[in-house]
Amino acid sequence: MTYQIMKHIINSYKYTILVTLISSVLVGCNSDGPQIEQPEKIYYDQAQRRMTAKNFYGAIESLEAIETRYPFGKYAEQAQVELIYAHFMNSETEAAHTAAEKFIRLHPRHPNIDYAYFMKGLSSYTRDREFLTRVSDTDLSNRDISGAKESFAELTEFLTRFPDSQYVPYAKQRNIYLRNMIAKSELAAADYYITIDAYVAAIRRANYVIENIPNSSENYRALKILEFSYEALGYSDLLNDVRVVININYPDEESRQPSRQRAWSWNFLNSSKPSETN
User: Fold this and answer.
1) What is the CATH number of the domain that holds 195?
2) Span 70-110, pLDDT tens digits
């Protein structure tokens, strides 16, 4: 009987020590006190100051804090749309595209929904935004343009949905640039096929440009590729037809010097941040 009593006392003593230790650890972990949560407005004003200072990384941090801590607050929707801009200006184009898609999904009737569609299209292809490309005038038509095609399609969707948007002039200008670049890429492939005497493949590329990108700057070049390929293959009827088309539509083109294409400018983005709606 005495042994059982002593065992009970020892077990109780161990339990008391264990509880004391756990309590001490918990108190130690909270010795610095709870994290002070800033009011929503302070986060939003902080984000605006950081964007003004071109500190887009810091702005993203502040805007994400609003989205996480105040998902139903006064500035929540505005923070989400400005995250698109901040990610884009911080060269995080995939994050900008994802943020735009998320905003479109969550707020299809928001006053700034046109901006989300616009930025979604821009974010799909921004390789020509790189410093070396802009400075050296690197020809992007010989590179992968799958992103350019996606961007062209998304901006075309934007133009269809929001014909009266303030961003329409910029989207149209960007699409002209992308359309010409896509056409150049197709014809760069056609030029390669000609060098290896694959004239049928060259004809397919040239016809694609004429039929699917009819308003590009490369139509004349596409017709000349057809002319060369038809002559090489001995397709006299098709050769005569394409020469008639060239003479009717480009009578003076042979004597003209190739003009230098003006690059699409990104400068408008400095003043295109979505307006506050709250």
Assistant:
1) 1.25.40.10
2) 988 999 999 999 999 999 999 999 999 999 999 999 999 99
Q: What is the residue-averaged pLDDT of the chain?
A: 81
Evaluate whether 253 touches 220 at the Cβ level (below 8 Å).
yes
Question: Is residue 234 situated within a structural domain?
Answer: yes
| Rg of the chain in Å (alpha carbons) | 31
Residue 60 lies in a domain: yes
Domains identified in the chain, total number: 2
Q: In CATH, what number is assigned to the domain containing residue 96?
A: 1.25.40
Sign, CA dihedral 102-106-109-112, equals negative
Q: Long-range contacts: 215-221, Cβ < 8 Å, 24+?
A: 215/179, 216/179, 216/180, 216/182, 216/183, 217/180, 217/183, 217/261, 218/180, 218/183, 218/184, 218/186, 218/187, 219/183, 219/249, 220/246, 220/249, 220/250, 220/253, 221/187
Tokens of 22: 């756990």
Cα dihedral 91, 93, 95, 96 sign:
positive
For the entire predicted model, the pTM comes to: 0.72
Domain that holds residue 215: 176-252
